[in-house]
Write a structure and sequence with these properties.
By secondary structure, this protein is an alpha+beta fold. It contains 3 helices and 8 strands; from the N terminus they run βαβββαβαβββ. 21% of the residues lie in helices and 41% in strands. It has an 8-stranded mixed beta sheet. Strand 2 (31-38) and strand 3 form a beta hairpin. The longest helix has 11 residues, at 17-27. The relative contact order is 0.21.
Length: 142
């Protein structure tokens, strides 16, 4: 059985990471955390904190990035919901065995030293969902 530990973060697609970081920080009072380029996904991410809640600002760094395509189709806004899990591989295998459509058949490296896999929005009522293991989010001790 897989263990969903909680919401790891909510991701917002943005056109300009510096502007978005300033807006979320100065206008809304969120604290800026780590910033990282995730080369294989073609994005740069900025983690923001609203108390214990993490909001990840995601900005494409290449034209072939899925986030670039998202922005071109839908514009800036909510990109995905990330759930913290204790075992990413087991979680996606369980979802697949129950008929869920996956984007990632195997976990891959994500930002902030995590292992991630995406579940297709068709499996979750239109919401792109990321499974996240590790990093600074939840642990099985949380």
């Amino acid at each position: 059985m897989t263990n969903i530990l909680g919401v790891d973060h909510i991701a917002i697609a943005v056109e300009d990471l510096d502007v978005a970081t300033q807006q979320w920080s100065e206008q809304l009072g969120l604290r800026a955390g780590g910033r990282e380029v995730v080369e294989d996904q073609g994005v740069e991410v900025q983690m923001m904190y609203a108390g214990q809640t993490r909001i990840e600002l995601v900005c494409p760094i290449r034209e072939d990035s899925p986030v670039r395509r998202f922005l071109d189709r839908k514009g800036p806004g909510l990109h995905h919901l990330a759930l913290a899990v204790d075992d990413c591989a087991r979680t996606i295998e369980n979802a697949k065995s129950k008929g869920a459509r996956l984007i990632d058949e195997q976990p891959r490296g994500g930002a902030h030293s995590t292992r991630i896999a995406f579940v297709h929005p068709a499996a979750t009522g239109g919401v792109l969902t990321e499974m996240v293991e590790g990093g600074e989010g939840f642990t099985s001790d949380s």
